[in-house]
Amino acid sequence: MLSRRGLLSGLATGLAAIGLSTLGASAAHAAKTYTVCKTTDIKIGSGKVFRPSGSSTYVLITQPRKGVWKAFNANCTHENVPVAGAVNNVVVCNQHGARFNAETGARTAGPARRALTAYKVAISGTSVKVTF
């Protein structure tokens, strides 16, 4: 039986052999934490889209319940256009009307077929920080 370490080692060797050795290293180091907004920027049951300084990614921050913060990639999974934000815990894409749950990111109405991509969110004092 092949161990996990053996499998990963073999994969790294194979990638290096075809010139893709930096691919895994790049992916491992790509995650970064950004300060996105202040907790006071997001009211309970709502959400807003932000573009963190130094990033080209748009992030949707929601507060579905008091003190509960969620972060998602702000692009609709239907045609990769930014969503409008969240009102009454519903995220809406204005282009074609797709809807998502502001707490889970789950698709609740088409034409999108997949959930929004969730990011790790942390609160530090009054700052909302997101890792992606």
Structure description:
The protein has 132 residues and is α+β, with helices and mostly antiparallel strands. 18% of the residues lie in helices and 36% in strands. It contains 2 helices and 10 strands. It has helices at residues 4-17, 21-30, and strands spanning 33-38, 46-50, 59-65, 68-73, 86-87, 90-92, 99-101, 107-109, 118-124, 127-131. The strands form 2 sheets. Strands 1-10-9-4-3-2 form a 6-stranded antiparallel sheet, with no helix packed on it. It is globular.
Spell out the key features of this protein.
132 residues, alpha+beta, Rieske Iron-sulfur Protein, 2 domains
SSE topology:
Layout lengths: L3 H14 L3 H10 L2 E6 L7 E5 L8 E7 L2 E6 L12 E2 L2 E3 L6 E3 L5 E3 L8 E7 L2 E5 L1
Antiparallel strand pairs: 1-10, 2-3, 3-4, 4-9, 5-6, 6-7, 7-8, 9-10
Helix pairs in contact: 1-2
> How do the helices and strands follow one another from N- to C-terminus?
HHEEEEEEEEEE
Average per-residue pLDDT, rounded, comes to 86
Which CATH first-tier class of the largest domain would you pick? Mainly Beta
Write down the domain tally.
2
CATH architecture of the largest domain: 3-layer Sandwich
H/I helix tally? 2
Shape: globular
CATH fold type of the largest domain: Rieske Iron-sulfur Protein
Indicate the radius of gyration in whole angstroms. 18 Å
| Helicity, as a percent range | 10-25%
Quote the distance from N terminus to C terminus: 34 Å
Number of strands: 10
The class by helix and strand makeup works out as alpha+beta
Major pleated sheet? 6 strands, antiparallel
Q: Uncertain regions: pLDDT < 50 for 5+ in a row?
A: 4-9, 11-22
Strands side by side in the biggest sheet = 1-10-9-4-3-2
CATH superfamily of the largest domain: Rieske [2Fe-2S] iron-sulphur domain
Q: Approximately how much beta-strand content do the residues carry? A: 35-45%
